[in-house]
Amino acid sequence: MLWDRFAASDPGLLRLTAGLRTVGAIGLTLVVLALLGTDVTHMVAGAMTAMTATFAIKDTLVRDQAVTLALGLPVALAATALSALLASQVIVGDLFFVALIFGAVYCRRFGERGTALGLIGFQIYFLSLFVGASTTALPALFLALLIGFGCSAVVRFAVVPETPRRVLARLRDAFRTRVAQLVSLQIELLDAEPEQLEKVLDDMRRSTARLHEAALMIQGRLEEGTQDADKAALLQRRIADAEISTERLGMLLLNARSAERADTLTLHLPHAPVPLTGDWRPSEDDATIALRRDLKALHLLVDRPATSDGGTAVAHLRNRLLGYRDEDKLPPAPAGIQDAFRGIGEAARSVLGLRLALGGPQDESDDSPATTRSREEFDAEDIALASSEKPGDDDRTGLQRPTTRAAFQVSVGSVLAIIGGELLSSQRWYWAVLTCWVVFLNTASTGEILVKGYRRLLGTLLGAVAGVALAGVVGDHTWVAFALVLLFIFAMFFTAPLSYAVMSFFVTAMLGLLYTLLNSYSFDVLVLRIEETAIGAACGVVAAVLVLPVHTDRRTDELLGTVLDRLGDVASAAVEQLSGGPSSDLLGKARGLDTALDELRDSTNPLTYPITPLRGRRQTVRYLVALLETCAYHARALAATAELVPHSKTVAADPRLHRAGRRIAHNIEVLAAHVGDKGMGGEVQSAASIASTLRDDGSGTPPSGAVTFRVLRHLQRLDEGVVGLARPLDVPVAERAGEKAVRG
Fold first, then answer.
1. pTM for the complete prediction?
2. Is the pLDDT of residue 366 over 80?
3. Interatomic CA distance for residues 604 and 602, integer angstroms
């Protein structure tokens, strides 16, 4: 359905809700102010106040949102009063503006509420400068602010309400839809001609990344959106199972049509080589026909909402797919095709588990023995699951704390922006300050600030051109201008997470319309807007470079070290549990790894940006991140399998895995020490395959009975991935004993 596709593109409908809530608050404010006979200037002030009061508040719980909104009103009134009182005191006013900026950024250390109050203080002070607030106009301006906050509250809590439980439910629906989309692409992969394969793989990579994004968003909403911690842990487990099994199925399908086993990196690195036979064509043998049929059946099971699981036909499909978890139910076929059927069985199991977690007990009258066994496994897992761990607090202090450092940087950049802005215009210098402020939001390194400043300038330039055209068309039609302003504000919020340049375009076009409403529009004003934006962006970059700089290399090295540390934690804990050791919160550790990897991916954007002149470095960074994503995928799979050990009938502990785990842990420690420049020498150790290593213990047979072949495969791929990280990180790799003997 079209709506499902839209919901999948906007997980939880968070962007749609934010845009509708903001536009609704602004529209209601304009209606109330118009009924009161307010002039256009104060209508603009009320509308912008409603926008600020709506988008600034990010608290998850409804009661926290109400408290922050109530505290924001006196902050807004105080900012407006001080702006009016200091309007004639240029130097004092500028000094206070800089102090306000410092405080607004510093307050981010106090969480969502501190961030919101700081943002409200800055934005309302800027708004007062924009509308030219004076002491005589304060009563009317205060009224506009009160109405703006009141309308924001009405829309937030009554018209477009949003509770954590409702958001989580929408996120789960989006996750289900994204799983269905990925399975649909896997069907295309099975039938794709060789010349179509690269495009299908690109689509699969994007779809896999979007599925992972939805899983992380659900993880961030579990605590507030579920009734208790045990329920949150259960959902976390089921979401992880579905994500891992669906991604694994894509890899197995790729192997099923490959001349040799494909590298897992193929699913994470664009243009990675795919070892296909040269004359491969979609096959019509019985096994392939059955595989295509069962992939479509899996898609049907995933695509159906949890509330519509009844019916004998659905039970029959589920029973058949779950039957592939038994070796004797696999159809006669080559090994690669049989692996794909096993993957379908595991994916069907994860779908069943997710439906049980979301919908509770279901009709079991039509269950096959395989389905009954899967339900029993889930019951055992549910008893063993423990609540997730809380993330540790940031122990950095003083200037090492990001908020403190950013506060000093923004303050210095704002001083430069005030000086440069007033040299351009004594009336509209504050645009430079606004740009300097904005480029520091949600950035953590000099490279990120430079890229964001460039995008801001590009969007402003294009928006100014659009503003010129729109202002000429709108003319004196006030309500047409307000309608376009609402449209652009919605577009601004809807596109903000997707493209900062596009968002800046809508912001500038909207401002052009506001200038028209205030009768201060001219072509010179829009040119000045571009110049002030350029000055502000330049001042932000200068401050980031000169004041307590955090270079992109340093930032990425810190995050890379964190990723490696967490990868080592997940791998070691998973292998320990697979070897018979004590249980731990493996999925909590795995999600911590995913979060760190996402932060690293974001921090490398300046290094992979299309306009970067360092082409070779860009390719290296992309390869490194893709390899880390591959390692994280196998670590997640090991963690999910290890949690089955205490209560599974098919996966038992094997102490022989401990030796393989030691080598992987050692290699990760060497890589982390090299990245962290801890002065620790050492080489990455490479050896024969994990299965071969386990045979060397004297048993002579691979451990197929105690630990599944799937576990060995993930261990082997993780081992290869960790060794592969040594090359882009310039870490020496020790030669194998056999290679040394040959050289000797």
1. 0.75
2. no
3. 5
